Recover the amino acids of this structure.
């Protein structure tokens, strides 16, 4: 052991510059290994933070569109909410149809509100069904039908029967079943 | 031959070489010691360069991570606001989806009547349109001779099938009845529209 140390000391005395360079190289090699590990970890950390950052930038870019779309969606839901049928408010519900009757000059000899189906799964809305008979000229009946389908109250026709009542003229009768969107 | 011209003759300065070459200093242009120092120096410099390069990469990663973290921190409030807007949007759009699920029309009747009227041949009159579970039935009459009326009706059904506002709504559109009747000039007909399966 002493011999080895003595030999090493002798070698170091004979080649001091080479020994210093070798020691420096070994130390730098260890440093390089450590930095390589560190870079590997930093790269992984960078990927995570960059992904989060890019998602953030993307969100920031879409923010104005989101605000605009939210305003539009809110306007639609407000319009739906304002025009929801309240099933128990029969007079007001029928008044909606009579107003359309006035506007289109068609006649509504029959108009009935029917009980809502109980199998609707929506927690917010219910369907309120109506049965009605509309008479008048084709133009008047078509105008009332269009008003019902495109009017402020959301609704859908579930079945209809349209027949000419006057074979010589243009009088028609429309039997219509429709559902309006109501509040639950 | 003269002595001075003899090529193998000994010169007058000849003497025995007593040098101990092992103990003499090197006299080569590039010495071994220098070469060994050069190799060790090169290794040390190369290691230094590698460490420097790796260190620069480390600093670069740290700077980039720091930049992203700073930007994320700066925009944290705005991102929280956008997240809140997204939740509101999801809530509001869910309301519309529910309303649409309940009120999605299978057919806009006013549009259907308009399109039937638009495509109707001039000689044709429609007396009844009935929508029930089986589909839509259109009944009417055609004031033409039977042969020509049949051709017109066949052509009309083809027009309905090819019409881009009527055709796509139905699985089949077919002429289901033609009746010459008795005592009337008009030929009676029935066209049936069968809906596609609801998705």
């Amino acid at each position: 052991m002493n011999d080895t140390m003595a030999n090493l000391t002798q070698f170091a005395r004979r080649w001091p510059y080479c020994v210093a360079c070798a020691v420096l190289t070994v130390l730098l090699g260890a440093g390089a290994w450590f930095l390589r590990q560190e870079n590997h970890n930093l790269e992984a950390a960078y990927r995570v933070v960059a992904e989060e950052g890019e998602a953030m930038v993307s969100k920031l870019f879409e923010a104005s569109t989101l605000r605009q779309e939210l305003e539009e969606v809110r306007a639609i839901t407000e319009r739906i909410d304002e025009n929801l049928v309240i099933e128990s408010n029969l007079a007001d519900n029928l008044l909606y149809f009579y107003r359309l009757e006035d506007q289109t000059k068609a006649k509504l000899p029959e108009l009935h509100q029917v009980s809502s189906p109980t199998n609707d799964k929506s927690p917010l809305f219910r369907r309120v069904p109506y049965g009605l008979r509309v008479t008048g000229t084709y133009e008047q009946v078509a105008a009332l039908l269009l008003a019902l389908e495109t009017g402020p109250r959301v609704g859908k026709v579930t079945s209809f029967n349209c027949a000419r009542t006057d074979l010589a003229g243009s009088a028609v009768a429309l039997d219509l079943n429709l559902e309006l969107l109501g509040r639950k | 031959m003269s002595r001075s011209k003899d090529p193998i003759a000994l010169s007058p300065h000849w003497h025995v070489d007593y040098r101990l070459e092992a103990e003499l200093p090197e006299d080569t242009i590039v010495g071994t010691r220098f070469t060994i120092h050069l190799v060790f120096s090169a290794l040390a410099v190369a290691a230094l360069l590698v460490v420097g390069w790796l260190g620069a990469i480390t600093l670069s990663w740290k700077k980039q991570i720091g930049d992203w973290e700073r930007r994320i921190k700066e925009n944290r409030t705005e991102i929280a606001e956008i997240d809140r807007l997204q939740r509101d949007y999801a809530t509001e759009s869910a309301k519309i989806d529910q309303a649409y699920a309940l009120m999605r029309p299978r057919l806009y009747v006013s549009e259907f009547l308009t399109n039937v009227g638009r495509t109707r041949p001039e000689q044709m009159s429609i007396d009844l349109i009935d929508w029930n579970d089986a589909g839509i039935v259109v009944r009417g009459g055609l004031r033409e001779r039977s042969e020509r009326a049949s051709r017109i009706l066949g052509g009309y059904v083809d027009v309905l099938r090819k019409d881009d506002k009527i055709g796509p709504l139905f699985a089949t559109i077919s002429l289901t009845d033609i009746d010459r009747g008795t005592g009337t000039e008009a030929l009676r007909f029935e066209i049936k529209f069968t809906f596609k399966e609801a998705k």
